[in-house]
C-alpha cells in the first residue's frame, strides 16, 4: 500500500543533538507518506517534538538530510518548505494583538501574497468547520483554550498546506476541551489531509491514524498500522509504554 | 520666591509663544524619537551581524553621555567641521538620538520577552524574519512597552528645557530672559507650572493609551 | 500600638527637621536685607579679618579676565587691577570664576566681596549694588558676517534679522529696545556667539568692542564690525550696599592709580594701546 | 594636536574637582531624602501621604534645569555649588523615594506579617526586617538613577558652577577645537556612567542568582 503513495517527508540518517552529549535524534531514518495521518508517540524526551520541528526548520539538524517533497530542508529552502507545511503548537501561539481572523489571514496575505478578498470566504468555511464562525472577530485572549487551538488549526489550514504538523496539540488543554480539538483533527484526517501528529491521545491514534510510530531515545522503534500497534506492536518497550498509559 | 502677577500681564505674549514652542518641540521630538527607536529596534531584532554591534555601541554611548553635551556637540561643535544645522534640527536630532537610544532599549526588552512560540508561529507561517517582527512580534512588544515608553516620553518634556541653551526661545529661555530684565523669578514659576501641566496632561493621556492597547494573553 | 506611634513621631520629626532647615534657610535669606541694617559687617572689615579679598569674575572675557591656556592662571586687566587693589589693602586676592548668569547673584548672596568683571553700569543694576568708578570704557557694536548686506544699524531693525548676545548680559535688553523688530536670541559664551554668527544662526552679534574683536580673531576675515556704536559701555567693579567702606576704598584706589600712571601701564599691557583718559574714565 | 588635547585635559581637570564635590554629596543626600520619603510614602500616613505624592509628582514633572534656575535666582541658598547639590538631591531624592517605595512594596506580605507577629514596632520592622531585603533588590535601579544624576550635573553649568562643561565652554575660545573639547567631556561622562551601568547589570545578575538559590 505504501508503494502507491508518494513520500512527502524523508529523514535520511538525521542526527540532532543539543549541546555536546544530548542526542535527540540518533541516526534517524523515516518516511512519511502523502495523504496519511501519522501519529508519533513515545515518552516525553524521546525526541518526537524535535523531529517534527526539524521538518519546518524550527530546529537545525547536525547531520544527515531531511527532504520535504524532494527538497532538502536547509536555511535557504526554509521559507518554501514552510509554505508547504503548516504547524499547530502545543501552546497555540496565536498572536494576541490580532483577532483570530487576522491571525488566519496573516500567513496567506504576507507569505503567500494572496489577496484578502480571495481568502476571506475560504477561511470563513474553515472557521465553520471548526465551529468558530461566530468568533472570528474575537481576540485570542477572549477565547477558551479549546477555541484557541481550533483557531490555530484554522490558521494552519489557511496556508493551504500539503502537510500539517501537530506538536502535542492537546497537552496544554483542560480535559473537557480536548475532545473538541480532537474532533476537528479527526475530521481533517477523514478528509485525507497529510498530518504528522505528536500526541499522547491514544484514543485519537486508534481512530484517526493511518500509521503509528513509537519513538524512544531518538530512534523510531516501531512503525505500524493502528490495529497492529495496539495488539502486537512487536517491540517490548512499546508494550511497556502501552501498558502504562492504557 | 514669590509670585508676581505683573510678570504674567507684561509678558504673556512671550510666555504663550514660548509655551507653544515647548509643546511643539515636545510633540515633534517625541514622535521622531519613538519612530527612530522603532526603526532601531527592528534593525536590532533582525540580528544582522556587524550592524547589531554598531547599534549596540550607538545605544551604549548615547545612554551614557549627557544630553546637554550631545546638544552642544551638535550645535556648537559641528559648525567647525562644516556642518551648520539650524537649531530646530539640532534639537530634533539630539533628542532623536538620545531618547531614541533609551526607547529602543525599552522596546528591545519587550521584543525579547515576546514568547518564543510567537516567533516560531510566525516562522512556520513562512513569514520572513522582517515580516515576523513587523506583524507578529513588534505590535505586541510595542503594546507591552506603552507604559514604559510614555514614562520615557515624559522625560522629553523635561529635555526641551535644555533647548534654552541652543538659541531656542522656549519656556526656560523666556523665563531666564524675563529674569535678566526684571530680576523677578516669577517667570520660572510660570514655566514650572506649564511643565507640570504638560506632564499631568501626558500622564492622563498615557493612562488612556495604556488601557486602550493592553494585550490580553 | 504606643510603640507604633513613637516610631511614627520619630519619622515625622525627621521629616520636619528637613522641612524646617529648608525654611530657616529661606527665611534668613529673605530677611537678610533687614538684618543687614542692624548687625552686618562691612566686607572691608571681614577682608582685613580674614586677610583675603574674594572677587568674582567671568573667564571668557579676554583681555579683561581669562584663563591662560598655557599656565592655567587667571589673568587680564580686571584681574591685575584687583590684584593691585588687594596689594594696596595688604591682603590676599582670591578670584572665583562664575558663568555670566551667576555673577550678580554671587555678589548679592555674599559669596564674594566684589565683582571684578566686565559689568556694565545700568540704572537698574545700580539699585542692586554700588558701582565703583569704571575701570574701562568701551563702545558696544554689532558684529556681522562680511558680505551679509547689513552695513548700518538701521539694517538690523528688520524682522528677518536674528540678533544674538550673551545670556544674562545687558545687550539682550538693549538690543530689544534698539531693534524692536529684530529677533533677539542669546548664547552662553562669547565663543558660542561667534559660532552662531559664523553658522548663520544669527545675523549680528551685539557686545562690547573687545569681546567682538576676540570673536573676530577666532574667525579670521569672516566678520566685520558695524563701526557706528550701538552704545557706550563703561565697565566697573561693584560691591554690595552693606559694604560702603569697601566701595570707598575701591573708588579711591581707582582714582589714585589713574593719577599715578600705574593704571596707564597696566592698560597698555593688556589692551595693546595707550590709555587716553576719556570724559568718563579719566576725569 | 596632542599638545592641544593635553591643554584641554589640563584645563578641564579643574572642573573635575567641582564634580567630585557635587556628585558624591548629592548621591548621599538624595539617598537620605529617598529613604525618608520612600518609607513615608509606603506607610500612607494621612495628610502626609498627600504631601509625599505632591513632592514626587512635582519632581517628576519639572525639568531639573528649571528647578536649578528657579532656586538659584530666588537666592535662597548661598552659593551655586550648594544650590546645585541641594537641587540635585531634592530632585533625585524623589526618584530614589519611588524606587525605595516600590522595593518595599515588592517584599512579600508574609515578611511584614512575620515581623508583626513577633511584636516588632513599625520602626524596628523597617530597620531590621524590611530594609535589609529592600537594599538588595533596589540596587540596580538605584545605580541607574545615579547614572542620571551624574549626567544631570552638566546642567549646573547654567547657574555658574565651574564644572567640566563650563570649563569646556571657556577653553573653546583659547584652544580652537570645540568638537575635541566636547568629545573629551563626553568621554569622561561615558567612562563613569558606563562603569556604573556594567556594575548595575552585574549586581542584577548576582542578585537574581542569589534569589534563585
Could you characterize what this model shows?
The complex is a heterotetramer of chains A (246), B (217), C (283) and D (213). Chain A contains nine helices and ten strands. Chain A has 246 residues and is an alpha/beta fold. A six-stranded mixed beta sheet of chain A has the order 6-7-8-3-9-10, with helices on both faces. A four-stranded antiparallel beta sheet of chain A has the order 2-1-4-5, with helices on one face. In chain A, helix 4 packs across helix 5. Chain A is globular. Chain C is an alpha/beta fold. Chain C is built from twelve helices and eleven strands. In chain C, helix 9 packs across helix 10. The N terminus of chain C is likely disordered. With 213 residues, chain D is mainly alpha-helical. The mean pLDDT of chain D is 88. At the B-C interface, helix 7 of B face strand 9 and helix 9 of C.
Chart the SSEs and their pairings.
The complex is a heterotetramer of chains A (246), B (217), C (283) and D (213).
Chain A: E1 7-18, E2 22-33, E3 37-42, H1 48-55, E4 63-68, E5 71-72, H2 78-84, E6 85-88, H3 100-111, H4 116-130, H5 145-157, E7 163-167, H6 175-190, E8 195-198, H7 202-208, E9 211-216, E10 219-224, H8 226-231, H9 236-245
Parallel strand pairs in A: 3-8, 3-9, 6-7, 7-8
Antiparallel strand pairs in A: 1-2, 1-4, 4-5, 9-10
Chain B: H1 5-45, H2 51-63, H3 67-77, H4 87-112, H5 116-124, H6 129-159, H7 171-182, H8 186-213
Helix pairs in contact in B: 1-4, 1-6, 1-7, 1-8, 2-4, 3-4, 4-6, 5-6, 6-8, 7-8
Chain C: H1 2-30, H2 32-39, H3 43-50, E1 52-57, E2 66-67, E3 74-75, H4 77-89, E4 92-97, H5 100-108, E5 114-120, H6 123-126, E6 130-131, E7 136-145, H7 153-156, E8 162-166, H8 171-178, E9 183-187, H9 190-198, E10 204-208, H10 209-218, E11 223-239, H11 244-260, H12 262-271
Parallel strand pairs in C: 1-4, 1-5, 8-9, 8-10
Antiparallel strand pairs in C: 2-3, 5-11, 6-11, 7-10, 7-11
